[in-house]
Amino acid sequence: MLKEQPLHGYELKKRLPEVLGPLSRVSFGSLYPALAKLEAAGAISVAAAADTSRPAIPMTGSLAGEAAAFRARRLPIRADRRGKKVYAITERGHALFEELLAAPADADDDRAFSLKLAFGRYLSPEARLRLLERRRAQLVERLEQARAAMRAASERLDAYARSLVEHDTESTERDISWLDRLIAAERPPADLRPSSLSDPSAPAADPTPVP
Amino acid sequence: MLKEQPLHGYELKKRLPEVLGPLSRVSFGSLYPALAKLEAAGAISVAAAADTSRPAIPMTGSLAGEAAAFRARRLPIRADRRGKKVYAITERGHALFEELLAAPADADDDRAFSLKLAFGRYLSPEARLRLLERRRAQLVERLEQARAAMRAASERLDAYARSLVEHDTESTERDISWLDRLIAAERPPADLRPSSLSDPSAPAADPTPVP
DNA sequence: GTCATCATGTAAGCCGTTACATGATTGC
DNA sequence: GCAATCATGTAACGGCTTACATGATGAC
Prior knowledge:
The structure is a homodimer. Helix content of chain A is 54%, strand content 6%. In chain A, strands 1-3-2 form a 3-stranded antiparallel β-sheet. The two termini of chain A are 39 Å apart. Chain A has helices at residues 9-20, 28-40, 64-74, 91-102, 110-118, 125-153, 159-186, and strands at 7-8, 44-49, 85-89. Chain A has 7 helices and 3 strands; from the N terminus they run E-H-H-E-H-E-H-H-H-H. Chain A is mainly alpha-helical. Chain A binds chain B through residues 17-23, 114, 117-121, 142, 145-146, 149-150, 152-153, 156-161, 163-165, 167-168, 170-171, 174-175, 178, 182, and chain B through 17-23, 114, 117-121, 142, 145-146, 149-150, 152-153, 156-161, 163-165, 167-168, 170-171, 174-175, 178, 182. The structure holds a DNA duplex.
């Protein structure tokens, strides 16, 4: 999100659900430490702290001296001046982002894939296709294993467990065909790479048909 | 699983995937502490430790005294005699199981629902129906929120994020109709509660149709 | 006699959460 | 002036994982 504009933590948290659908939900307890880590790593930097330029001593009145003394007494404890910290992404940050986005995901971390796809626009067409096809291969393997496990244990499964496993299998199948559609959409339209073999009206071939 | 027969930890871990489909995967690092906690809570008990009845001092030979001394020196450190620990479920365990299985699940903990349904056979028909309908209501709410979020932010979403959110929405819809089928299957067949209103050939009414 | 497998456990660590603590800004 | 909200952070904890440590059993 910082690739589009500098933002501060609170704002980031507010916008996350809009950008990622309701599948985000990061708590402050993990957001702020994450920002601190990214800043320490040089991936982001504080573009502008809160405009702490309140009039040096506003309405200098009788109590101002006392208040200033009080403030001075406790300020040293926390060096930061508790205001908005607007972060911007750095060059290193862009590089890190690309690296993380292109990195192969854990086979069983579904969220990682979703997150990467959500930012698919920042990937090169090739990297995007790799992401989709890697994911597809993982789902196909998962499906095969699930089917093998079913064959091995289906008689031990009662109706509820079986229904669960079957529903799960169907979901995976649907995920695969969804990926197929995304993959097909990634391929350049036929009229951009004309050849004697391509017929614009023919449906795109399935990369590897689901059995 | 202990409801069906006493088993030891290693065996439990081996069988888990068969019983729950491949959606289980518990590591030893969490399984053994869990068993220890359950035992401490009185939910399970060691039915039979490993048959440690090896001949008291097998083949008493020249080195036996030395070996025994060595063993005696280090045995006090670990009181247990490292063998199979076959656990059986206790009365308290059955009660705890039922309590946990019937407890309302966290709205966003999908795994909890799956786990409960997998052991649905141990629930009373009423509790089972409650489980299914509670889950259905949660999914319906999730769907509504997702759609509201989409309406609010759809123009900000690019093709990838949108496709993701839409696919997610469809999955939820399918989950709901799957639940509807399960719920319908729970209802006693028409010929068991005959009434002037029930027509065996008419399709079951959807509890609350998905819009 | 030694290797693979069975079998149980502990320790360190990661990742994320909730609850808490603090402070700044704004509207009434 | 004071409440709501914006805004940042820390602390404690929970749950799960991997890596490590240990030991028993059986096959060859």
